[in-house]
C-alpha cells in the first residue's frame, strides 16, 4: 500500500501540506482495490487482522454513532469497540468527527458499516494517514524490513527483526508486512494492466541510452564516466546482444561501466529494467547472470544511485560538453534498427503528481507536437533513405490539442508505426516483477485480437525489411519544468533519450540539430505533403481493402509533379510501396505499381528505388501469371532502367529473359479477344522495358541470346504505333551490333521497317530510318530497301526539316543506301540530290555529316557531279571545309574529291581556293581526315589548271606531304603515295619533293604487305624515278628487291603499278642487276602476256632493259 | 446415383442453364450435384428442401473460397439470395456462381454493389461503408478517436467515387468509378474469390464430378 499510495496515486498539492486524493479514474480504481483488500482481509488473514497497529489510523469520518451496532459501546456520540488491545484500549474509537482505528479487523468492520460511503471512508483514511504501513508496523520495523531485498525469505526476515528486538509478535508483523507488500505489488500491476501500460525497455531504448552514456565517457575532468562498453559485439536481429538463452528471460544486453568514483559496474539491461549482475565481463559467460541489485528503470537511475560523482555531474551537462563527433554514434547506427525505432525510455522522477502540471504539460506537449510532428526521421534522411518512420502519428496531437486528458492515455508519440502508451504513473525500482513473460507474450499478439486490450501488440504487416513491432510504454515525464522534454519526446528515435535527465538539455548531436532547425521549413510544405503522409500512414496500417482504397486515393494526386513524387519518398512511402510488391496480394501490387510507374519518371526516385532493392522486386513480378501485373511491372522497369546501374541490375536478376518472354504474342490478328488484347498490352510494355534496357551493350547481347530478335520481328507486324515505337526503338538501338544487323536482314524485317517509314508518326519514322541507317552498311540490306521501295519515303522525309532528329536519321539512311549505285540512280528519280544540296546550309552537324556523306556517294556518278554544280553545291561543300567536326570533314573531303574529277567542278573548286583548304586539312590530327584529304587531293591535282603552279604556291605544302610519309597509318600512307604520284608528274615539284627527301621515305615503306599501299607506293616510286638520280637513290635505298615481291601479289592493280615502277627503275643498271637477282624476269615474262596493255608494255620494257644490260655485258666480255 | 435422380438433375440443369450465361448444361449439372452434396443428406430433389441456409453458405465461402470477413460473407449470402428467403436455392446457387466465378466486369460490379449494400436501399452510405472498413486499419490505441482513420478513409473513398455529389454512392456512381479504376471493384472488402480458389473449385466440381 505504501508504495502504491506514494507512487501510484495521484495527489494534489494542496498548500496546507496535506494532500488530497484527486478524483481520477486511476485513484478510484486504487481506492476500490484497497477497499476490496481491506474487506477481505479479516476473513482471509484472521491472525494478521487482529494485530494492533503501532499507531492508530485516524481520520474525519462521516460515520456517526448511530451507524454502529453490536460489538460497540455507544455512549452519546462516542463509540468504542468492545475489542481492546492488551492494554485495554479500544481498537476503535469514534469521537466525532474523528475516528481512531487500530486493527484491520476493526477497519473492515467499519468499512462494512459505512456501506455506500465506503469509498469516501477509505479515501479519507488514506488522505489523513499518509504512511499507513509505518503506522501499522512501527517505523523502525518498516525501515528494517524495507532494507531487505526481495529475495530474503520470511524466516530470515523474522530473524532480522528479532535481532533488532522489535517487540512482540515479530512473525505476525513480518507476515503483515509481506501481505501489504504483496498487495502493493498487485495493485501496481493491476494499475498497469488497467492502463495497459507496459514497462519494458527495449533494445533500441537501451542502445540509445548507452550511446548517450558513451558520450559522457570522455577524457578530462569534466567527464562523468570513465568507460562504457558492451560485453558483446554481436547483435541479433531483434537488437539484443544477450545470448538467446538469456533473451527468454528478457535480457537485452550486458554492459560494463566504469564510473569515476566507484568500482566497475557490471550491468544487465532487460525488458523489465536494468540491474547489476554477477560480473559478466564478456560474452559467452556461463555464470554471473543473477541479479545482484535492485531493478532500476534505466541506466541513468542505476548509475545515479551507484555513483555519486555521476549523479552530481550528470546534472551539469549541457550542450557544450556533449559536442562529441557524430562518428561515435555512427558506429552503432546499425541498420538492424531500421525497424526498431522504439522510443527511448523516459525517465521518471517520483514526485507527487501535480494535475496542473499535467494539464500544462499536456498543452505544451500538444503544441510541441504541433511543430514537430511532420518532420521525417532525420537519421534516414541523412542516409538518403526514408524509413517508415514517418511522423504521421504526430498528426494526432494536433487534432486533439484541445482536449484535456484527465485519463491515463496520452497521444501516440514517436516514430514508426509503433503504438505507445503513456501511463501517468511511473514505475520505480520495485523488486516485484511486472512479468516480463507477460510483456513478451503481448509483444507477439497480433493487433486484431488485441482489440480492447490497449496494450496490444501492433503487428505491422510490412515495415521495413522484416520488421518487428514493439509496444513500448511511455512514461510521462512528470515533473518537468514543462519545457524541453515535451519537445524532445516528439523527436525521432534517432535522437538521444535526453529525457533521461530531467534537468539536462539535449546534446548537440547532428541529428538533434535538425529537429531544431526543422520548424522553419515546415510551413513551406504544400498541402499535398500532409495528405500524402496521411495516406502513407494508412498504407502501413491497413489490410488489403484499406490499402487498395488508399492507393486509389494516392493515384489522384498529380504524380508526375516533382513535389508529390518527392513527398512520397520523404514520408517513407517509397519503402511501403516497394514492400507491397513483395506481398501476395495482387490488388495491392497492382495499385503500388500504378503509382510507382508514374513517380519513377523522377530521376531521384528511380535511384532510390534501385537503392532500396525495389527493382529486384519488380523484376520478380514479371513472372506473375496475372497479365496486368506483368504489364505494369514492365512499364515501371522501362522507367527505372534509364540509368546504367539499373540496367545492370535488371540483367543480373534475370530481367532481360523475363522481359523477352513477355514479347511472345501475335499482335496483328484481326479479332482480338480480351485476353489476347491483354497479351498485346503486355508485349508492348515488355518492348518499352527492353528499349530502356537495350542501351547497355551487355543487355543487347542478352536480349539476343534470350531469343528476342525474332519476337521483336513478329511484333514489328503490328498495326499499332504505340507498339511499333518501342519495338523499332529497341531494334534501332541494338542495330549497332552486327549480329543484330544480320538477324534483321535475315528475318526480313527490312520490309516492315520500310513500310513504317510512311507512317504518320514522326517518332516512328525516325526510329525506322535510324534502323535502316545502321543496317544499310550491308549490301543486301541496301538492295532490300530498294526492293521494298524504301527509297522514296526516305527522300520524302527530307522535307521534315524541323525535326532535326528525324532529318538526321533520314539523311543517314540515304547516305548509307546510296553506297549502292543502283540506289543512287533510284534516288535521282526522286530528286534527292537537289534536296540534299539545299540541306547543306543551316543544319546541325549531325545532319550535315549525313548529307555530305550522301552527296559524296552521289557524286560518284558523273551526271551527278554536274548536277551538284548546277545546284550550287560546290560552293557549300567548299565552305564546309573550314569546319572542325572530324566526321564531317572526312565526308566533305570525300565529296569534294568526288566532285573534283569533273573539270568544270574543279574550276570552281580552284576558284574558291578549295585545294588549299583541302591541303591544309592534311595538318588535321585525325588520321581519317588526313587520308581523306589526301585522296581528295589526287583528282584536284590531276584536274586543276596549272596544277604544278598551284601546288608550288602552297606554302610548305610539299613538305607537309612528305612528312606525312612518316605516318604509321596505312590508309594515310596509301593516300599520300597516291597524291605524291600525282604531284610528281610535274618535274619541278618532283625536284622539290626529292629535296624534301621523298625517296628514302618511300623506300622505307616498301616492305609492306598491304596491297593498297603497295599499289600506290609503287606508283609513287615509279613517278619519282623520273628525276635526276632518284633511280639510283631508290636502288641504294634498297627499294628494288621488295618491289619485285609485289609481283607475287594477287591484286592486279599492284601488278600494274609495280611493273611500271620496275620499268622505270630498270633504266638504272644497278637496279637491273638487283631485279634480276631477285628473279623478276620470270614474272615479267608472264605479265607480258597479260590483257592489260599498260602492264604488257611496262613488263616488256623492263625485260628489255634487263636484256639490254645483259647483252651489253656479254658484249663487253666478248670484245675485251 | 439413381437414374431418376440423374434425369431429374438433367431437366433441372436444362431449365437453369437457360438463364445462366457462363455455364453450359454439363457444368450446371455438376453444380447441381455439388449443391446437393453441400446440402447434406437430402439428395432427393423431390423433398422440401429450400436450400442452403446462411450458416452452411458461409462455411462454404470460408472453406472453399477462403473468405474471412463476416460482414462480407453476409453480403455475399444476401447477393446470392435474390428472393430474400434466407435460403440459397439451387437456382440461386447456380446463378450466383455464374457471376461469382465467371462474371464479366459489369456483372461483377452489380454483384459487389449488392454485397456492399447492407440495407438494400440501392445506395452505399457512409454508415454502410464504415462498418465494413472498421477493421481494415490497424487501430492505434493512443488515438483519441480510434475510428478516425476509418472515417477519414471513408471520406476519401466517398469523395473519390461519389460522382453525383449526393453524399452516398448510387449504383451508377459505383459503376462509373469501377470502370475508371478497376481496383475499386472490391473497394469495401474482398467479396470475389481469387484465381486460385476459382480454379480449384472448378477443377474439383467440373472435372471430378464428371467421373461420378
Automatic annotation (TrEMBL), chain A:
Biased composition (Basic and acidic residues): 349-360, 369-378, 391-408, 439-460
Listed SMART domains: ARM
A Pfam family per the record: Arm
InterPro entries from the UniProt entry: ARM-like, ARM-type_fold, Armadillo, GSKIP_dom_sf
Spans of repeat ARM: 613-655, 664-708, 831-873, 956-998, 1038-1071
Biased composition (Polar residues): 476-489
Chain intervals for the UniProt region annotation (Disordered): 340-525
Entry coiled-coil feature ranges: none
Protein name: Armadillo repeat-containing domain-containing protein
Lineage: Eukaryota, Metazoa, Chordata, Craniata, Vertebrata
Automatic annotation (TrEMBL), chain B:
EF-hand domain span: 68-103, 104-139, 149-184
Domain of life (superkingdom): Eukaryota
Keyword Zinc: no
Cited SUPFAM superfamilies: EF-hand
InterPro entries: EF-hand-dom_pair, EF_Hand_1_Ca_BS, EF_hand_dom, Recoverin
Keywords carried by this UniProt record: Calcium, Metal-binding, Repeat
GO MF term set: calcium ion binding
UniProt cross-references to PANTHER family, sorted A to Z: CALAXIN (PTHR23055:SF60), CALCIUM BINDING PROTEINS (PTHR23055)
UniProt name for this protein: EF-hand domain-containing protein
Species per Swiss-Prot/TrEMBL record: Perca flavescens (American yellow perch)
Amino acid at each position: 500500500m505504501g508504495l502504491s499510495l506514494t507512487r501510484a496515486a495521484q495527489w494534489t498539492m494542496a498548500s496546507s501540506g496535506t494532500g488530497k486524493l484527486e478524483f481520477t479514474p486511476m485513484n478510484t480504481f486504487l481506492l476500490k482495490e484497497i477497499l476490496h483488500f481491506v474487506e477481505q482481509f479479516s476473513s482471509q488473514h484472521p491472525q494478521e487482522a487482529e494485530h494492533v497497529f503501532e499507531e492508530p489510523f485516524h481520520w474525519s469520518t462521516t460515520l456517526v454513532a448511530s451507524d454502529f451496532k453490536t460489538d460497540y459501546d455507544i455512549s452519546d456520540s462516542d463509540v468504542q469497540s468492545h475489542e481492546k488491545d492488551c492494554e485495554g484500549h479500544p481498537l476503535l474509537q469514534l469521537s466525532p468527527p474523528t475516528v481512531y482505528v487500530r486493527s484491520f479487523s476493526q477497519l473492515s468492520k467499519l468499512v462494512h458499516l459505512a456501506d455506500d460511503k465506503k469509498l469516501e471512508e477509505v479515501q479519507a483514511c488514506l488522505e489523513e494517514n499518509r504512511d499507513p504501513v509505518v503506522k501499522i508496523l512501527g517505523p523502525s520495523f518498516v525501515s528494517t524490513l524495507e532494507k531487505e531485498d526481495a529475495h530474503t525469505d520470511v524466516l530470515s526476515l523474522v530473524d532480522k527483526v528479532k535481532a533488532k528486538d522489535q517487540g512482540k509478535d515479530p512473525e505476525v508483523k513480518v507476515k503483515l508486512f509481506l501481505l501489504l507488500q504483496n498487495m502493493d505489488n498487485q495493485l501496481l500491476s493491476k494499475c498497469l494492466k488497467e492502463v495497459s501500460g507496459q514497462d519494458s525497455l527495449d533494445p533500441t531504448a537501451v542502445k540509445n541510452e548507452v550511446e548517450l552514456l558513451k558520450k559522457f565517457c570522455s577524457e578530462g575532468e569534466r567527464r562523468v564516466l570513465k568507460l562504457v562498453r558492451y560485453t558483446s559485439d554481436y547483435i541479433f536481429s531483434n537488437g539484443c546482444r544477450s545470448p538467446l538463452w538469456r533473451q527468454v528471460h528478457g535480457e537485452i544486453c550486458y554492459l560494463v561501466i566504469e564510473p569515476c568514483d566507484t568500482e566497475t559496474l557490471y550491468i544487465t539491461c532487460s525488458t523489465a529494467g536494468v540491474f547489476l549482475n554477477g560480473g559478466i565481463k564478456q560474452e559467452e559467460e556461463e555464470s554471473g547472470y543473477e541479479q545482484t541489485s535492485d531493478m532500476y528503470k534505466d541506466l541513468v537511475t542505476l548509475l545515479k544511485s551507484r555513483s555519486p560523482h555521476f549523479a552530481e555531474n550528470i546534472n551539469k551537462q549541457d550542450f557544450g560538453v556533449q559536442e562529441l563527433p557524430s562518428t561515435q554514434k555512427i558506429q552503432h547506427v546499425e541498420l538492424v534498427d531500421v525497424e526498431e525505432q522504439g522510443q527511448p525510455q523516459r525517465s521518471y522522477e517520483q514526485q507527487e503528481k501535480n494535475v496542473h502540471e499535467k494539464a500544462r504539460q499536456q498543452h505544451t506537449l500538444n503544441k510541441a507536437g504541433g511543430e514537430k510532428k511532420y518532420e521525417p526521421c532525420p537519421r534516414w534522411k541523412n542516409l538518403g533513405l526514408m524509413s517508415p518512420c514517418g511522423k504521421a502519428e504526430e498528426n494526432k496531437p494536433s487534432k486533439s490539442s484541445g482536449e484535456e486528458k484527465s485519463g491515463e492515455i496520452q497521444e501516440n508519440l514517436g516514430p514508426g508505426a509503433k503504438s505507445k502508451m503513456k501511463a501517468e504513473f511511473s514505475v520505480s525500482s520495485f523488486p516485484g516483477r511486472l512479468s516480463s513473460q507477460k510483456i513478451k507474450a503481448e509483444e507477439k499478439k497480433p493487433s486484431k485480437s488485441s482489440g480492447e486490450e490497449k496494450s496490444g501488440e501492433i503487428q505491422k504487416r510490412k515495415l521495413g525489411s522484416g520488421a518487428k513491432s514493439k509496444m513500448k510504454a511511455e512514461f510521462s515525464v512528470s515533473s518537468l519544468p514543462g519545457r524541453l522534454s515535451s519537445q524532445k519526446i516528439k523527436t525521432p528515435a534517432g535522437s538521444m533519450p535526453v529525457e533521461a535527465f530531467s534537468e539536462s538539455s539535449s546534446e548537440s548531436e547532428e541529428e538533434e540539430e535538425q529537429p531544431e532547425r526543422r520548424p522553419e521549413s515546415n510551413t513551406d510544405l504544400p498541402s499535398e505533403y500532409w495528405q500524402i503522409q496521411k495516406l502513407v500512414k494508412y498504407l502501413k496500417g491497413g489490410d488489403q481493402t484499406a490499402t487498395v482504397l488508399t492507393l486509389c486515393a494516392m493515384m489522384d494526386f498529380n504524380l508526375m509533379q516533382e513535389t508529390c513524387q518527392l513527398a512520397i519518398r520523404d514520408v517513407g512511402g517509397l519503402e511501403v510501396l516497394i514492400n507491397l510488391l513483395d506481398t501476395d496480394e495482387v490488388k495491392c501490387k497492382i495499385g503500388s505499381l500504378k503509382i510507382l510507374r508514374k513517380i519513377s519518371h523522377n530521376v531521384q526516385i528511380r535511384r532510390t528505388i534501385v537503392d532500396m532493392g525495389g527493382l529486384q522486386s519488380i523484376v520478380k513480378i514479371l513472372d506473375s501469371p496475372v497479365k496486368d501485373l506483368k504489364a505494369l511491372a514492365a512499364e515501371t522497369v522501362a522507367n527505372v532502367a534509364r540509368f546504367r546501374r539499373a540496367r545492370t541490375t535488371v540483367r543480373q536478376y534475370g530481367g532481360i529473359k523475363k522481359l523477352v518472354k513477355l514479347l511472345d504474342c501475335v499482335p496483328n490478328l484481326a479479332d482480338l479477344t480480351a485476353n489476347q488484347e491483354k497479351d498485346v498490352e503486355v508485349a508492348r510494355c515488355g518492348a518499352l522495358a527492353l528499349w530502356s534496357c537495350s542501351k547497355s551493350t551487355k543487355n543487347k547481347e542478352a536480349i539476343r541470346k534470350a531469343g528476342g530478335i525474332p519476337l521483336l520481328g513478329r511484333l514489328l507486324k503490328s498495326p499499332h504505333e504505340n507498339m511499333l515505337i518501342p519495338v523499332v526503338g529497341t531494334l534501332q538501338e541494338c542495330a549497332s551490333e552486327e549480329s543484330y544487323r544480320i538477324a534483321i536482314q535475315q528475318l526480313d524485317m527490312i520490309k516492315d521497317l520500310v513500310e513504317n517509314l510512311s507512317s504518320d508518326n514522326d517518332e516512328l519514322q525516325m526510329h525506322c530510318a535510324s534502323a535502316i541507317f545502321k543496317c544499310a552498311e550491308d549490301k543486301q540490306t541496301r538492295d532490300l530497301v530498294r526492293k521494298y521501295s524504301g527509297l522514296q519515303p526516305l527522300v520524302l522525309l527530307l522535307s521534315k526539316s524541323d525535326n532535326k532528329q528525324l532529318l538526321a536519321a533520314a539523311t543517314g539512311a540515304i547516305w548509307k543506301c546510296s553506297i549502292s549505285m543502283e540506289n543512287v540512280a533510284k534516288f535521282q528519280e526522286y530528286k534527292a540530290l537537289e534536296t540534299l544540296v539545299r540541306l547543306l546550309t543551316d543544319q546541325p552537324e549531325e545532319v550535315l555529316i549525313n548529307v555530305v556523306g550522301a552527296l559524296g556517294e552521289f557524286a560518284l556518278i558523273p551526271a551527278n557531279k554536274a548536277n551538284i554544280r548546277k545546284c550550287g553545291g560546290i560552293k557549300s561543300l567548299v565552305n564546309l571545309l573550314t569546319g572542325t567536326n572530324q566526321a564531317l570533314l572526312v565526308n566533305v573531303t570525300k565529296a569534294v574529291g568526288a566532285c573534283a574529277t569533273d573539270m568544270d567542278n574543279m574550276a570552281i573548286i580552284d576558284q574558291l581556293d578549295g585545294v588549299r583548304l583541302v591541303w591544309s586539312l592534311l595538318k588535321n590530327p585525325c588520321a581519317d581526315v588526313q587520308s581523306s584529304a589526301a585522296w581528295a587531293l589526287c583528282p584536284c591535282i590531276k584536274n586543276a589548271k596549272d596544277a604544278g603552279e598551284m601546288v608550288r604556291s602552297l606554302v610548305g605544302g610539299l613538305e607537309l606531304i612528305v612528312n606525312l610519309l612518316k605516318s604509321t597509318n596505312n590508309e594515310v600512307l596509301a593516300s599520300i603515295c597516291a597524291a605524291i604520284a600525282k604531284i610528281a608528274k610535274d618535274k619541278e615539284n618532283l625536284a622539290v619533293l626529292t629535296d624534301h627527301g621523298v625517296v628514302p621515305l618511300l623506300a622505307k615503306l616498301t616492305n609492306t604487305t598491304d596491297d593498297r599501299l603497295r599499289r600506290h607506293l609503287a606508283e609513287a616510286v615509279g613517278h619519282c624515278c623520273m628525276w635526276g638520280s632518284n633511280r639510283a637513290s631508290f636502288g641504294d635505298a634498297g627499294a628494288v628487291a621488295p618491289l619485285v615481291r609485289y609481283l607475287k601479289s594477287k591484286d592486279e592493280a599492284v601488278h600494274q603499278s609495280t611493273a611500271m615502277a620496275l620499268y622505270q627503275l630498270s633504266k638504272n643498271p644497278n637496279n637491273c642487276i638487283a631485279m634480276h637477282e631477285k628473279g623478276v624476269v620470270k614474272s615479267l615474262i608472264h605479265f607480258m602476256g597479260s590483257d592489260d596493255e599498260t602492264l604488257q608494255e611496262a613488263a616488256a620494257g623492263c625485260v628489255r632493259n634487263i636484256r639490254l644490260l645483259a647483252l651489253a655485258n656479254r658484249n663487253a666480255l666478248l670484245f675485251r | 446415383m439413381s437414374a431418376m435422380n440423374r434425369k431429374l438433375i438433367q431437366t433441372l440443369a436444362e431449365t437453369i442453364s437457360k438463364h445462366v450465361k457462363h455455364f453450359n448444361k454439363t457444368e450446371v449439372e455438376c453444380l447441381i450435384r455439388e449443391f446437393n452434396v453441400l446440402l447434406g443428406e437430402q439428395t432427393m430433389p423431390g423433398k422440401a428442401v429450400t436450400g442452403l441456409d446462411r450458416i452452411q453458405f458461409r462455411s462454404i465461402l470460408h472453406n472453399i473460397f477462403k473468405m474471412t470477413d463476416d460482414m462480407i460473407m453476409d453480403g455475399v449470402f444476401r447477393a446470392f439470395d435474390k428472393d430474400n428467403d434466407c435460403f440459397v436455392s439451387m437456382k440461386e446457387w447456380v446463378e450466383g456462381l455464374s457471376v461469382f466465378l465467371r462474371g464479366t466486369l459489369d456483372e461483377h460490379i452489380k454483384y459487389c454493389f449488392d454485397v456492399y449494400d447492407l440495407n438494400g436501399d440501392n445506395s452505399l452510405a457512409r454508415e454502410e461503408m464504415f462498418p465494413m472498413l472498421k477493421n481494415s486499419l490497424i487501430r492505434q490505441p493512443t488515438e483519441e478517436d480510434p475510428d478516425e482513420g476509418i472515417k477519414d478513409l471513408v471520406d476519401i473513398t466517398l469523395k473519390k467515387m461519389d460522382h453525383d455529389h449526393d453524399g452516398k454512392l448510387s449504383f451508377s456512381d459505383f459503376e462509373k468509378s469501377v470502370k475508371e479504376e478497376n481496383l475499386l471493384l472490391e473497394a469495401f472488402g474482398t467479396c470475389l474469390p481469387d484465381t486460385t480458389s476459382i480454379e480449384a473449385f472448378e477443377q474439383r466440381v467440373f472435372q471430378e464430378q464428371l467421373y461420378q
